[in-house]
Amino acid sequence: MGTTPNDPNDPLARQLYGHNWKSKQIAADARERLDRESDKSNDMLEQKAVIYARVSTKKQEEDGESLEYQLQRCRDYAEMRGIVIVDELIEGGKSAFHNRLEDRPKGAVLNHMLFNSKEINTVIFIDVSRMFRNLGDAVDFTDLIIKNELYLHECNGSGELDLSQPNEWLGWIMRAAMACHHSMEKQARAKAESKRRVMTGRAHTSACYGLDFTDRKNVKVDPIEAEVIKHVFHLYLVEEYSMQNIAEICAGNGARGSKGGPFGKGNVNRILQKRDTYEAYGIIGSNAQRFIPSFKMITSSV
Questions:
Q1: CATH T-level fold of 47-179
Q2: Which of 7, 53, 65, 121 could form a disulfide with 70 if both were Cys (CB 3.0 to 4.6 A apart)?
Q3: On the CB side of 202, how many CA atoms lie within 13 Å of its CA?
């Protein structure tokens, strides 16, 4: 037997209007509205996620062990939490210290899916260092996550992060800062070692493009060749040109080899191999891939 509009045993009636139902139509409208709101809440709570995994060196990428561990850990976590996995983004051989998230190929895809197409609302990763090793990048991304009310899950950390809470926000940013600090220490050690090898004569730097080691205690930087070096790193790291194409572009803009000969692919290869040395002497910075040089000094020498 069905309940009447004024039936005190109708729990929905008591919840919405007490016992003062005016008609069956009011009851029907109230139930329909409640169902709509319930469906809307369920849609908002559903988390559609992307797993983001990253390694910073080609060797790690080829070995695959680190990537597979990250992926499996994140898959298990998503299954345990009942989160729907839409895609898995695997970033191989990209440093999070030298490359902001949007400058990494898969990071750019992640940004688009979160903030542009909005086909996902959740990111799952194993820990903050896989996402960020650049503090400014972490802060900017976190701000967007909070504004768009999106979800982050750090499997090896505290799980789901509610970054709108001051304590959780602080803990997250502190972990990002520690990851950044670790990378900065590593870079500083590499630069110091590069200088030490030059000073002690252990490094083969007698013919290093852009640098004059005649006096090892007073190494001189060739300003014209330094511009070529900056451009080589920009074309390789940002534009992702091949070494042959880089050589042709630089030669076409007046670049010459270290002994005045043609500037070729071999010159590009040797320059790229000495990144630590060029960072140690300030020709390029640790964010060299974001530096866009000009060819004014190069063309002036032709």
A1: Rossmann fold (3.40.50)
A2: 53
A3: 6
